[in-house]
Design goal:
Length: 415
């Protein structure tokens, strides 16, 4: 309890310091406004602070799981949206303070300190304060755009994979992949249906879902069972679990409750019509030839390690082509490539592309690339491929900026 009190005190102190510092820009910019508007902006400034601190206290000492996952996401988003833009704006306020500090130091070495020209239209402090407010408005606007437009701006990415050992009867087979649905975060069911329809319109031969059906608990998927049960393909829909599917991020009353939640999660996959692969494999057969699909439970270097690749591999030794579903891309370098060199393609997700990116021409930057070596798109080492899907849904922040939700369509061709 003592550690929790210290942590909450530290966060509140940081919030107040940020607010007080940024408030100085508000005071400067609004000093010539009318009394009414000056009062509105100055008192209104502190409302998000009251909200954020109240939410933080309730989250720490109350029961955040008494409300649904979507509402929790909005609370987190409200706090981040209140403070991240201010931090950006503070950079410019620091520039102002630094230049004033430098001038103050130089004044000791001059006979008289310089004074601003009486004809100066705007002081440097006022200019930088306005720049700070403008700079803060940019990420705030981006956050809003990412929620309103980016969250469900589904994009189809097409990938052709050439495999030298692909059986002739599977030449041209088309695979659809979705990952990281996170049903507990959705707030626009109509838009989600549109994304599902986009995948169905591709008329793929098979569909892969590579984990994270929910955020914390299985009941989150209930409202969307009638949406994702529409996913169908002639050769089947195959799925696996992701790190969020185990209930690891919720404080359960008992171990038994957590275990029951996971059993219900597995059952939900079956209700949806997904063939869930729990460290096991299936074979697709066409024209007397076989293609193996392997699926492992979540295994990642940073998160839970439930996957047992050796069990999923067992019995597929003779398959000409092996396709692996593994949620976390770190599994590829850690176990797949070193020990299973005949697994041709690994399909992953997990990273979401951080739900944020900057794309200018061929240049792409996202903060997640500094955390994951393979974070999005196609990777190749010798004759083995890894594809990391950027995710269908979202987590925490209910939107996406520069990193749209992805539906991937693969075509396998003989090399």
């Amino acid at each position: 309890m003592k550690a929790r009190l210290m942590t909450i005190f530290l966060f509140i102190l940081i919030f107040l310091v940020i607010d007080y510092y940024f408030f100085q820009a508000v005071l400067i910019v609004s000093r010539d406004w009318s009394t009414l508007w000056k009062s509105i902006i100055r008192y209104g400034f502190w409302l998000p602070t009251i909200f954020s601190i109240s939410a933080l206290l309730w989250w720490t000492f109350g029961d955040p799981y008494s409300i649904n996952s979507n509402t929790r996401n909005w609370l987190i988003t409200g706090i981040v949206s209140s403070y991240f833009p201010k931090v950006v704006g503070i950079i410019f306020l620091l520039i102002d303070d630094l230049q004033r500090g430098v001038r103050w130091v130089f004044s000791f070495f001059q006979k008289s300190s310089s004074t601003p020209s009486t004809g100066e239209v705007i002081t440097r402090s006022e200019f930088l304060s306005k720049v700070a407010l403008t700079a803060a408005a940019v990420p705030l606007g981006a956050f809003a755009y990412g929620i309103i437009s980016g969250a469900h701006d589904y994009r189809i990415r097409r990938v052709t994979l050439k495999l030298s050992n692909l059986p002739k009867s599977f030449d041209g087979i088309r695979i659809g992949q979705v990952s990281d649905i996170h049903t507990g975060s959705f707030w626009n069911k109509t838009a989600v249906k549109g994304g599902v329809e986009m995948l169905l319109n591709e008329k793929t031969d098979v569909i892969f879902f590579t984990g994270d059906l929910v955020n914390n608990e299985t009941k989150e998927v209930n409202e969307y069972l009638d949406v994702f049960n529409k996913l169908r393909a002639p050769l089947g829909v195959y799925s696996i679990t992701g790190n969020h599917d185990y209930g690891d991020y919720k404080a359960w009353a008992t171990k038994q409750e957590k275990e029951q939640n996971f059993r219900e999660l597995v059952q939900a996959h079956k209700v949806l019509g997904f063939d869930i692969l729990m460290n096991e494999n299936r074979f697709l057969e066409q024209g007397g030839e076989k293609l193996a699909i392997l699926g492992v439970e979540n295994w990642g270097t940073r998160f839970s390690k439930h996957g047992k690749l050796d069990e999923a591999y067992k019995g597929t030794e003779g398959a000409a082509v092996k396709l692996l579903l593994s949620h976390d891309p770190t599994h590829w370098d850690a176990q797949v490539r070193p020990g299973f060199k005949d697994i041709d393609v690994t399909f992953s997700g997990h990273t979401h592309g951080a739900q944020f990116g900057i794309n200018i021409g061929d240049f792409t930057w996202t903060p997640v690339q500094h955390v994951y070596k393979q974070w999005g798109g196609l990777y190749q080492e010798n004759n083995q491929y890894l594809y990391v899907n950027r995710g269908f849904g979202y987590l925490g922040y209910p939107g996406r900026v520069g990193m749209p939700p992805e539906i991937t369509i693969f075509e396998l061709k003989r090399a």
